[in-house]
Structure formats: structure tokens, C-alpha cells
Amino acid sequence: MTTPGDREAEVLERIEAFRRRRPRLIDDMITMAHGAGGKASAALVDAVFVEAFAPGDRTPLADAATLTLPTGERLAFTTDSFVVQPRQFPGGSIGHLAVHGTVNDLAVSGAKPVWLSAGFVIEEGFPVAELREIVADMAEAAAAAGVVIVTGDTKVVGKGAADGLYITTAGIGIVPAGRHLGPEYVQPGDVVLLSGNMADHGMAVMLARGDLMLDADIRSDTAPLGELVAALLDAAPSTRWMRDPTRGGVATVCNELARDTNLAVVLDESLLPIAPAVVGACDLLGIDPLYVANEGKVLVVVAPEQADAALEAMRSNPLGADATRIGEIMAEPQAIVVLLTSFGGTRIVDMLVGDPLPRIC
Fold first, then answer.
1. What Å distances lie between residue 50 and 44, 55, 61, 168, CA to CA?
2. Which residues contact 132 (CB under 8 A, 6 or more apart)?
3. From CA 184, how far away is CA 199, in angstroms rounded?
4. Does any domain span residue 271?
5. Does one domain contain both 329 and 271?
6. Residues 209, 68 within the same domain
7. Lowest mean pLDDT across 3-7, 154-158, 195-199
8. What percent of the chain has pLDDT over 70?
9. Residue 171 near residue 147 (C-beta atoms within 8 A)
């Protein structure tokens, strides 16, 4: 006969097995899932790139590398590629994303973004007028973010070889002395904050493709986060960790945090900020907004005594007007993201294999 103690032990054993799982690369060919930011992406990066470039290094992967110069100064260095379709969408373009995505990776690493590079792969037959518009968007975005595009490269490939235009940007920022952020600083009892509504970007791009015959007023949230992050760090210097939840959304980033800290990230469904139009679109498509990309939001872990100051600082910036507390860090269950549902229950929020919305950045 099975006793309550036996059932509890079985549940704990299953949780422990779930916790120990690590994405493994089992595919022989690259699929779209490998570029979507979920388990397939993590497995590819771990088995191919980390294995080749940093074998045996289990240091958590961040949005930017922090480099210490011989003089003692620290720089943050990051790179990203942009392949979004369509290239123009409500609220922005691939040009805006190419700047915002890179400066935001620097900002959430605690750095002040300063310089960018830009590389363009252009398909033969691409309209020069559209290229001018996209480059103008990049110049506008760089000026607004306070960065300078200082170098770049251009390649042209044959018709049908590049889907129009791909852009790669790299960025360098300066990390102020004494500033340290990372999963190693996160502690049980810390508070999880989000700077505004989830899923705006991913759904704006999805609807702009025109395949779904849905009409909703949803605009991408693409924006530079440097000023908002600077205000946050001034008001809450004990901020532990930050990420911008792009591919894979809030759920994926929280799973990475739980894995890197070996702590629990407990989210409250009733506190998650989502615009009604986005809720409706996600419901119609059967997509969980927790997994949908954002391009102008920051997810933050702060010490509980500075949570109110952090929220006030974010809300003082237009990009953080809807900032809110969405959860907390707990010691158990280790390395797992838990959602407290609106119905009073709980469920595990796992990392998806791929992304329900490919090519959104």
C-alpha cells in the first residue's frame, strides 16, 4: 500500500530529477528551435560553442562579457545579430532593434553603453531606399541611446541568400568602479521586479506578418534602457542582477536565473503586467505571454529593503511607468521557476525547447 510518505518521497524525487536536467544537443541538423532562445538554443551553445571556445567553463552566460583592462578599468563587451521579419513593424524596425538590443545588453550588465559597430549582409536586389530608412533608424536610435556607431562592414550576397538584410552589431560600455551584478549575488528573500508590460514586441511582430488575420493595436516596446537602468542603480545600489527578457521572454530568463543561482524564482500570476490587447492576442493564438519576447523591458532582482526605491526610480522614467513587483527569490524548490496561479494553485514554469514566435529580433 502506498502511504502519504511514499507519495511525498516520489514527488520530491521527480522534482530533483527535473532540477538535474540539463539541455543536451541530440540533433544532427540545425532547426529554427536552435535560434529561439529556449532549451534547444542552450544545448547548441553549450555543446558546440562553449565546448570549443571555453571547454570546462561552467561560468553562467550573461548578456555581455565583463573585461578588466591592465589599468584596472572594466569594460562590458557584447554582440548580437538581427534577422527579424518583417523588417518594419508597429513601434520600430530592424534598425531600431540592432541598436536597442545591443545597448540594452550592456546596460543590464551594469555598464554605460558608449560605442557600437555595425555589420550588414545585404541580399542582391535589396532596395536602396529601404536600406537608407533602416540606417536612418539606427542613427536615430544611437543618438537617443547616447552611443556612437564607430565602425562597420558591408557584404552583398546573391539573390535568395540572405532574406533581404541581416545586421550584426557589437557594443562596448564602461562599468563604473565598484559595480558588480550577477547571479552569485542573488539571495533568498530578494524581490523580482519588471519594468513594464510583457510580450508587446513579440506580438507586434507576429501580427505585423499578416498571416493571422488579427487586428489589434499592439506596438513593439523596443527602446534603449540605459537611462532607466542608471536611475535604478542610483536608487537601489544593492541591485543584485538584471536581464532584458528578449528571446524566450520572462519565463526563459527566470529559468536561467534559477539554474545559475540554484534557487527558486516564484512568480505571482496576478502581478504579471500584460496589456489587454496582448492578453487577447495570446489567448487567441494559444501562446503564453511569459515566453514572448520584449525589447524594452528589464527584469531586476533587488534586496527587499530597496525594492520600493527601485520601483520609484523606474516609474520616474517613461519606459518604466508600469514597473511592478512580480515575484521573489526563495531557497526551495532549488533551480526551479514556480508560478502562483490566479486560481490559488502552483505550476512549474519550464524553459521551452524553442520559441512559439521565431524571427522576432
1. 9, 6, 10, 20
2. none
3. 28
4. yes
5. yes
6. no
7. 3-7
8. 93
9. yes
Report the domain count for the chain. 2
pLDDT in tens, 95-111: 999 999 999 999 999 99
Q: Please give the torsion angle defined by the CA atoms of residues 220, 224, 227 and 232, in that order, rounded to the nearest 10 degrees.
A: 60
Instruction: Please report whether residue 244 resides in a domain.
Output: yes
One domain for residues 218 and 242? yes
Burial class (CB in 10 A: 0-12, 13-18, 19+), 248: buried
What residues contact residue 201 under an 8 Å CB cut-off, 6+ apart? 91, 220, 221, 222, 292, 293, 294, 295, 296, 360, 361
The whole-chain average pLDDT of the chain stands at: 92
Q: Taking residues 251-266, report their average pLDDT.
A: 97
Three-state SS string over 266-320 comes to EEEHHHCCCCHHHHHHHHHHCCCHHHCCCCCCCEEEECHHHHHHHHHHHHCCHHH
> How many CA atoms lie within 13 Å of 187's alpha carbon, on the beta-carbon side?
9
Instruction: Report the SS3 class of residue 13.
Output: helix
pTM of the model: 0.90
Asked if the bond preceding 86 is cis, omega within 30° of 0, the reply is yes
Residue type, 52: A
- One-letter amino acid for residue 20 of the chain: R
189: nearest Cα among 328, 338, 333: 328
Closest of 348, 240, 354, 260 to residue 304, by C-alpha? 240
Q: How far apart are the first and last CA of the chain?
A: 54
Residues 152 and 214 in one domain: no
Q: Are 174 and 78 in contact (CB under 8 A)?
A: no
Mark whether 194 and 171 lie in a shared domain: no
285 shares a domain with 201: yes
pLDDT score at 40: 81
| 229 assigned to some structural domain | yes
